[in-house]
Amino acid sequence: MCHHHDILRSADQEMQQEERKIDRRQFLTKTSMGLGALALGSLFGSEKLFAGGQSIPTVGSGGLEGLPHHIPKAKRIVYLFQSGGPSQIETFDYKPKLMDMFGKELPPSVRGEQRLTGMSAQQSSLPIAPSIYNFDQYGESRAWVSELMPHTAEMVDDLCFIKSMHTEQINHDPAITFFQTGHQLPGRPSIGSWISYGLGSSNENLPTFIVLNSKNAGGQPIYSRLWGNGFLPTQHQGVQFRSGKDPVLFLNNPDNYDGEDRAEMLQYLKQLNEMQHSAYGDPEILGRIAQYEMSYRMQTSVPEITDMSDEPDQVFDMYGKDSRDSGTYAANCLMARRLLEKGVKFVQLYHRGWDQHNYLPGGIRNQCKNTDQATAALLKDLKQRGMLEDTLVIWGGEFGRTVYSQGKLTPQNYGRDHHPRCFTMWMAGAGVKPGYTHGATDDFSYNVTENPVHVHDFHATLMHLMGINHEKLIYKHQGRRFRLTDVEGHVVKDILV
C-alpha cells in the first residue's frame, strides 16, 4: 500500500509540473475557444461554451437550461418494445369480416401501389388469412382484445390504443432504428439519450437511461446502437443491465482489489482530465469525467437495485413465475418498476421473437404467453403504487403484419409478412386518455382509414408528455441542427387528457 501511495504522490507532482508547462501563450494556442469565447462564457455561463452553444448537463444535473418547456405530464417512461413486428390482426385490430374471405385473393384496390418485401413479392397468390383466434370486448371502454392476451384485456380501461400507426420502413433493421432514433440509418441519438440530454437525471446514483434485453429470445438481433447517444455527449447513452452476477459490465472491482482507494484514484484521474479539458476544450472530456464518477456510485447502487430479495411473494406471483428468473421479460418488467421508483427517467425493454413469417398461430401464442401477464402486472403495479399517473408506459413493435398469408395457407396455419402501412401500439398512464382508441384501419387491416399516426408524430407526442417541445430540443452537429423528429412530427393532441 505504501508503494501505491508513492505512485499517487509521484503522479500528483507530475501533474503540477504539467500545469506549469502550460503557459499563457500555449493555453491560448491549444484551446479551440479563444478570448472571444471566454468573454462570451462570462456572460452566458461556462456550460454554454461547448456543443454548438448548448449546455452540457453532467449526470445528476437538472438538464438543459429552459427545460422542460412546459409542465410535463410524465416524469418517466417505460417503453416495452416488442421486436419483430407483432401481428395487429391477432392481438388488437379485430376484423370479423375476414372470416368469410378465407383464401380469397387480396383485392388489388386494397393493395394499391404499395411495395412488398422480397419474401412475398414473388408469391403467385396473396390469399387472405383471417385470425384463428377469438376476440371479445372488455371493460367499460368495450375495447376488442384477442384471447391471446387475457391479462392485458383486464387493463383496457387504462390503455390508449393507437390503431393507425404507420411507417415507411418495411424491413426490421431500418424500422427498429427509425423507431428508436427517428431515422432509418444508424448514427442518430436514441429517444432515451435525447431525454437524458434535455432533462438530466433524477437520481445521481443511477443512469438516466437504462436498457433491459430479454435473454434467450430468438428473432432479429438487437444492437447496442439502438440505445446509443449518437452525436450527443457519451454520458447520455443507454446503460444495459444484463442478467447474471454482473448486471453492468466492468463495474465490479478486479480480483484481489478491495477498492478502498478508488475514490482517491478517481480524484487524480479527474484532475488529469480537467487539465486536458482546460488545454483542448473538448466537451467529450466532461462526459468522460461524469461517466467515471457515475460508475463509482453505481458500484453501490446497482447491486442494491438488482437484489430482488426484498420483493414479497405476491409481487412475483403477479408478474408470473418467470419473474424470479433474472433476464426474462417478466423479471425485466419487475426490474423496470424498481428502476422507475428510483428516479430513472427512461427504461427501455427489448423483447424479440415477434417475427412470424411462418407458423404464426403457434409462434404468437408463445410470445403472448411469455409477455402478457408481466405487461399487465407492470401496469397494475405502477397503478397501485400511485406511479401510473406520472409514468408513461408504451407497448409496440416496429411495424405490423400482412392480412395475406406468406407461404402456404391452411385453416390452422399461416404466416404473415411485414406490413408498415398500419399497425397497433398502445400507451398508458401519464397524460394519455385511458380507455380510448385512436385511429382505424380498413376491413383488411391493410390501410389507415382514420387519424394516421406516423413515427415522427409518436416521438413528438412522447416528448410533449415529458414537457419537451420537440421542435426546440435541438443539437448542432457538423453544421446542421438535429432533433429527434428531424423536420417533421406533430403532437397527437386527440389522445391527450
How would you portray this structure in words?
33% of the residues lie in helices and 15% in strands. It contains 13 helices and 17 strands. It has helices at 2-21, 24-30, 34-44, 108-111, 150-153, 172-181, 191-199, 262-280, 283-306, 313-319, 329-341, 360-384, 455-465, and strands at 76-82, 135-138, 143-146, 159-166, 209-213, 239-241, 346-351, 391-396, 400-405, 416-419, 423-429, 436-438, 440-441, 448-450, 453-454, 475-477, 480-482. The strands form 5 sheets. Strands 1, 4, 5, 6, 7, 8, 11, 12 and 15 form a 9-stranded mixed sheet that branches. It has a two-stranded antiparallel sheet with strand order 2-3. The longest helix has 25 residues, at 360-384. The N and C termini lie far apart (62 Å). The model is unreliable at 24-60 (pLDDT under 50).
Brief overview:
This protein is of the alpha/beta class and 497 residues long. It has helices spanning 2-21, 24-30, 34-44, 108-111, 150-153, 172-181, 191-199, 262-280, 283-306, 313-319, 329-341, 360-384, 455-465; strands spanning 76-82, 135-138, 143-146, 159-166, 209-213, 239-241, 346-351, 391-396, 400-405, 416-419, 423-429, 436-438, 440-441, 448-450, 453-454, 475-477, 480-482.
> Strand pairing plus helix content: what structural class?
alpha/beta
Note the total helix count.
13
Strand content: 15-25%
Straight-line distance between termini: 62 Å
Largest sheet: 9 strands, mixed
The percent range for helix content is 25-40%
Which sequence of SSEs, written as H and E, runs from N to C? HHHEHEEHEHHEEHHHHEHEEEEEEEEHEE
Count of strand segments: 17
Gyration radius (Cα, Å) is 25 Å
Shape summary: globular
Unreliable runs: 24-60
- Overall pLDDT, averaged? 88
